[in-house]
Amino acid sequence: MTCGPPSPAQVAEKKARNVALAKSILASPPPAAEWKRTALKAWDDTLAAAYAKAGIVPPPPPGVPAPPSVAALRLADAALTMPRKIVQAVQGYNFKLGKRPADHPSNLRHGRMLAIPTVAVFVRDALTQHASVSAFDFLGLREKSIPTAELRALGFVVPKGRERFRWMVFHDAAERVLYADVHTILSTLGIDCPHPEQDGSPFVPFPLDGPASHNHGKGSPVCCPFHEDANPSAAIYPLSPRGYGAGVCRACTGPDGMPLRFCYRATRDGSYEARIARKHRDGAFQMNDVKPVDSTSRYNRGPTGRAAPPRIPFPTASRLYGTTLSVSLRAYGTGSGWGQGTSTARLSGDVLTAIVRSEATADYGNIRPKVTNYEFEAARRMVQEGTPHNADARDRLIRVQPQYSTYSETYPWGSVPSGWQDAGVQFVPFDFDDFNLGIDGTAQAWADRVVGLVARDPRCSGRVTVVRTSGGGAQVIAELARPIAGRQPGAAWFASNGPRKWYRELGERMLAAGWELGAEGGDIDWSAFAPNRLMRRPGWRVTKDGEVYRSHLLAAVLDVAASAPVTLAA
User: Which residues, 6 or more positions from 68, have their beta carbon under 8 angstroms from its beta carbon?
Assistant: First the structure.
C-alpha cells in the first residue's frame, strides 16, 4: 500500500461527510440544563434580568424585609445537599461573617474596612473538626481570606497572638449581606449551629474546689452535678483557652444511651457552673435512665457499611476575586543542552480583558522583524537539531482562572507572592488541535459563529475570546454564567460527569460550525478541561514545526450588553 495525498474524490467525499455531520449536530437541541428549568433560575432570568436591564432594584414594601438574593438562594440550596453537621457548620460561619456585630472583640477595623478572623476549626468544639473544615472549604474561605501579613499591609494593627489567623476583609457592610441571607434561609428551615456564643441553655451550680488538672489525660474525679452523687462518678478535664472545660459522668446516660457529657466554666465570682452537652439534651434538658445500647450512627445511620456519598455541591458566585497572571516561557542554551526559564507578571483586568489587550501590544518593541529574521534559522535547528520551539520567541501564556497566592518568597528587595492556585472556575477553555480553518476569512466567520454558540448556551455568560494560535489550532475561552467558588469545588466540577458532557457537546458544536464552513479535521484537547491550565495570548511564536506564526485574536465579547461582538481581523 502506498501513502500519498488524497484524491479529489476523497477530499470531496470527506467535505460532504463533514458538512452532513455539522448540520446534524447544529440541528440537534442545545445541551439540556435542568437547573435552568427550576423556579429559581426562571426567577433569575426574568425578574433579575429585567431589573438589571432597567438599572433599578425594586424596593420592598414598607415593613417587609428585602428578599434574599439569588446568590444566597443558590448557596443555601447547595448547602442543603450536604450532611447535617456540615450544614450546621456552614451556619456557624455565616453567622460569624454576616450577622455577628461588627464591634465584636475578635474583629478588627481600619477606616471603613472590617476584618473578621476565620479559622478552619472554628466550630470544632461544637460539632466536629471534619464538619468545620468541610464548611470552611465549601464557602471558599481558604481562597477568599488573607493571611495576617497581608492584613497588616492593608494598615490593620493585629494584636499579638493572632498571627496564625486568616482574615476576611469587607470593604463595605453590603458585602456581608450574602452570608446573612444564607443564615436567615437556613434558620427558617430549622438549621442552626450550636455555638457557645449563641447557646442560651441554662447552667447549674457546680461545686468545685478548683479546675481540673491534666492528670495524664485521665481527668480529675468529681461528683456529678446532675444527680445525687455520694462517690465521685464523673471526671472533668482542664479548661480550654476559651474558658470551657469538658466532663463526663459514667453513672448518668443521655437520650442516646451513652455516658452523659457536659461542659463547665468559671464564673466571675470564682465559682463554677455546668450544663449538659448539646448531643445529650432533650426538649426539657432532662436525662433518662436508658441503659447504653449499641449505636449505629457512627456508620452514617446504617447498621453496616457506609451510605452513598452525598452529591458534590458547587457553590457559585457572581464573580471570583483574584489576580490575573501571565506566564512567559523561553528556552535558552546551556553547556549541557537546553534549559527553560519561566517568568510571571500580574495583569490588570480579568483574563478576557488581558487577552484583548495582548492583541494590541503583541508587536510592541519591534518584535516582528526580530522574529522573522530568525525564521529560517529556527526552522532549520528545529528540524535538524531538535531545538525547543520557544528558543527564538517567548511563549506568551496566561492563567485561565483568577489566581490567589499561597505563600511569598523573600528576596533582598522584598517579598514576592508565589504558589499561585486557582480561586475557582470562572472561565472554561477550549483547545482545538489539527483544526485547519483555511484562509483568514473562513477563520473569521467561524469565530463569529463561536461567539453566537457561546451567547446562546445557558451555562455561559456570553463573554468570550477566540484566538487562532497556528495554522491548525485555535483556542476559545468562555466565561461561566455562575462561576464555581473555591479551589476544591472547582477541581470537583471539572471531574464531574455533567460538566464534562456539557463541555463535549459545546466543543462539538464549535467544530461543527467550522466544518460547515469547509474546515477540516479538529480534535478537542481534553487536557484544557482541568484546573491550573494555561492558554496562549496573542503574539509571535515558533510552532512545533519550526514555523514562525503570529497568534491573533479573531473575536471577543467583553460586554454582554453590547449589540455586536468586537471583531478583530488578522
Answer: 76, 181, 182, 184, 185
Amino acid (one-letter) located at 354: A
Q: What are phi and psi of 83, to 5 degrees?
A: -55, 155
Nearest-10 crossing angle of helices 84-94, 129-138:
60
Q: Work out the end-to-end distance of the chain between its first and last CA atoms, rounded to an integer number of angstroms.
A: 41
User: What Cα–Cα distance (Å) separates residue 486 from each residue in 135, 219, 543?
Assistant: 12, 41, 35
Cα–Cα distance between 271 and 273 in angstroms, integer? 7
Whether 404 contacts 531, CB under 8 Å: no
pTM above 0.70, yes or no: no
| Consecutive H or E run containing 251 | strand 244-253
Contact 359, 553 (CB under 8 A): yes
User: How far apart are the C-alpha atoms of 380 and 548, rounded to whole Å?
Assistant: 12
User: Helix, strand, or coil here: 172?
Assistant: coil
Grid cell in block for residue 42? 426562571
Give domain limits for the chain. Answer: 39-57+67-188, 204-284, 324-567
Among the listed residues 128, 98, 129, the one whose alpha carbon sits nearest the alpha carbon of residue 114 = 98
Dihedrals phi, psi of 282, to nearest 5 degrees: -110, -165
> DSSP for 104-120?
-TT-EEETTEEEEEE-T
Per-residue pLDDT of the chain (570 residues; tens, 9 = 90+): 444 566 778 777 777 776 676 666 556 554 444 433 444 444 445 555 555 555 544 555 555 556 677 778 778 877 877 787 888 888 889 888 888 888 888 889 888 889 998 888 888 767 777 888 888 888 888 888 888 888 888 888 888 877 778 888 898 888 888 888 888 888 777 777 765 444 556 778 888 877 777 666 677 888 888 888 878 888 888 887 667 788 888 888 776 677 888 888 888 788 888 888 766 654 433 333 333 333 333 333 333 333 333 444 567 777 787 889 988 876 665 556 666 677 888 888 899 999 999 888 887 655 555 555 555 454 444 444 555 555 556 778 999 999 888 777 777 777 778 888 888 899 999 999 888 888 888 899 999 999 989 988 888 988 999 999 888 899 999 999 888 887 878 888 888 888 888 999 899 999 988 988 888 888 899 889 989 899 999 988 777 766 778 888 999 998 876 434 443 332
Geometric angle at alpha carbon 567, from 566 and 569, rounded to 5°: 150
- Quote the CA–CA distance of 291 and 321 in Å, as a whole number: 54
